[in-house]
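Quick review question:
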């Protein structure tokens, strides 16, 4: 597990990697289609583009609805902050100048396939986790640690699902 920091203000990160037996262009078709992501994630329930957009470009926005057993249900607006086909797509959750989180997929052609990484940074803007920390400030490090482990586990599952889908064709 690669994550740094134990406090929310440290903007902890986690990154997961997978090698996929498919070219970057094929993997890009999947990771850049945010409408497919609810099928890749157990937490993300639905996604839809805003402003008449239908694919990623810097500045495009989409709404995601998520559900978590302990945190409930919530909706966020994400802003695409990087988009370079077929290499990288990234988005900032809520306020792009002070995001609740930043998510990024990187693709690198390697050994006739693709090395895919999914990376995320928590904070610095407030998120649902902030409310749990507000309620139990003495447990902040444990709360952050547990959530980062959840992200790592869920990202590993997501990459496995992307791998299967990309390699099917």
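Suggested answer, residue by residue:
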């Amino acid at each position: 597990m690669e994550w740094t920091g134990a406090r929310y203000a440290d903007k902890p990160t986690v990154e997961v990697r997978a090698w996929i037996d498919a070219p970057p262009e094929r993997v890009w078709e999947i990771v850049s289609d945010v409408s497919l992501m609810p099928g890749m994630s157990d937490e993300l329930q639905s996604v839809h583009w805003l402003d008449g957009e239908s694919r990623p470009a810097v500045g495009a926005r989409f709404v995601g609805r998520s559900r978590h057993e302990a945190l409930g249900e919530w909706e966020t607006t994400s802003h695409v902050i990087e988009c370079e086909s077929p290499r990288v797509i990234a988005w900032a959750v809520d306020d792009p100048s002070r995001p609740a989180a930043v998510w990024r997929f990187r693709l690198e052609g390697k050994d006739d396939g693709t090395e895919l990484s999914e990376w995320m940074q928590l904070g610095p803007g407030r998120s649902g986790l902030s409310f749990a920390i507000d309620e139990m400030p003495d447990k902040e490090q444990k709360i952050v640690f547990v959530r980062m482990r959840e992200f790592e586990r869920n990202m590993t599952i997501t990459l496995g699902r992307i791998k299967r889908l990309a390699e099917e064709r």
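Why it works: The radius of gyration is 16 Å. The chain is about 25% helix and 35% strand.
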